[in-house]
Design a protein that fits this description.
It is a single chain. The chain is built from eleven helices and twelve strands. The relative contact order is 0.14. Helices cover 45% and strands 22% of the residues. The protein is an alpha/beta fold. The strands form three sheets. The protein has a five-stranded mixed beta sheet with strand order 4-3-5-12-6, sandwiched between helices. A five-stranded mixed beta sheet has the order 9-8-10-7-11, with helices on one face. A two-stranded antiparallel ribbon has the order 1-2. One of its GO terms (molecular function) is DNA binding. This is Transcriptional regulator, LysR family.
């Protein structure tokens, strides 16, 4: 049966995305090309493979039965090829799938772009925003290459490899016209409504406050530092952000920086891979690029 690897990849990615356009984007092909591949597979396998529903494209029973073996086979092929030929970033085409917090997108990606353009013109990075449980599932299956996250006081499974990336002190940002002083007391910190960006299931500030039997007022929850900064600039709210993020936001928006009360812990970030996959030359190359960003 004449079926190539790219066709099989479409099946696995479409099962994850539930949407043909998103699946095509993730595979860096046009929607028409993805539709053509799906039509050919349906004809060859004599099965609809995916059915449109209100929830998106749902896999057929045949597809569900094929997916586990397909994914294992694709991972094995990629690992075998990577071992057969050392990764050459100047020449080789590679897409890295990275589950990451907003910090990585905001701080690291702009610094990685010049490296990619100069040293790895055929390398692409695809960022995925996933719940923590889903991150681990996709890391173990090889669907993502690494997780970049906020460190948490939890035990890392023995088959994971965690790399310490950086510590970033937390500071406050407020609108330029805010009445808040340059250094906040704990009382001012607790009385001021906060804009909050969740980076993990637990938060270092909230954990710290809990130890002192305190809690802050969360007025709004956002999903990116950029949006949080825009809202902060037009409000009387306070947003706690890492120092490196604050430096960038202050150049973009009418904001000023304030010091938080003594004792607020820094944000610690790490990079996690799976032992089954992180010995690949390509993955080690990307790890080195990220760990040099400070």
């Amino acid at each position: 049966m004449d079926i190539d690897i790219q066709q099989l990849r479409l099946l696995t990615v479409l099962a994850e995305e539930g949407n043909l356009t998103r699946a095509a984007d993730k595979l860096f092909m046009s929607q028409s090309a993805a539709s053509h591949i799906l039509a050919k597979l349906r004809q060859r396998l004599d099965d609809p493979l995916f059915v449109k529903t209100r929830m998106g494209m749902e896999p057929s029973p045949l597809t569900l039965s094929l997916l586990p073996d397909l994914q294992k086979g694709l991972n094995s092929i990629e690992m075998a090829l990577s071992r057969a030929k050392p990764f050459n970033p100047v020449l080789d085409a590679k897409t890295f799938n990275v589950a990451a917090v907003d910090y990585f997108e905001f701080f690291a990606l702009p610094q990685l772009v010049p490296v990619l353009e100069k040293e790895a013109p055929n390398v692409r990075i695809a960022i995925e925003i996933l719940p923590e449980k889903r991150q681990r599932e996709r890391l173990e299956s090889g669907d993502i290459d690494m997780i970049i996250s906020v460190d948490q006081p939890s035990t890392v499974p023995k088959y994971y490899q965690r790399y310490d990336w950086l510590d970033d002190p937390l500071v406050g940002i407020v609108a330029e016209a805010s009445h808040l002083p340059e250094t906040l007391t704990l009382k001012q910190f607790l009385e001021t409504p906060h804009i909050h960006l969740p980076n993990a299931s637990t938060d270092p500030i909230d954990d710290w406050l809990l130890q002192h039997h305190q809690a802050r007022q969360i007025a709004m929850i956002v999903q990116s530092y950029a949006i949080g900064g825009m809202v902060t600039a037009k409000s009387s709210y306070l947003m706690c952000v890492p120092s490196r993020i604050a430096t960038s936001l202050l150049t973009m928006l009418p904001l000023r920086q304030v010091a938080l009360p003594d004792g607020v812990p820094p944000l610690k970030l790490s990079l996690t891979t799976h032992h089954r996959f992180d010995n690949q030359d390509s993955v080690q190359w990307l790890i080195r690029q990220i760990l040099t960003l400070k």
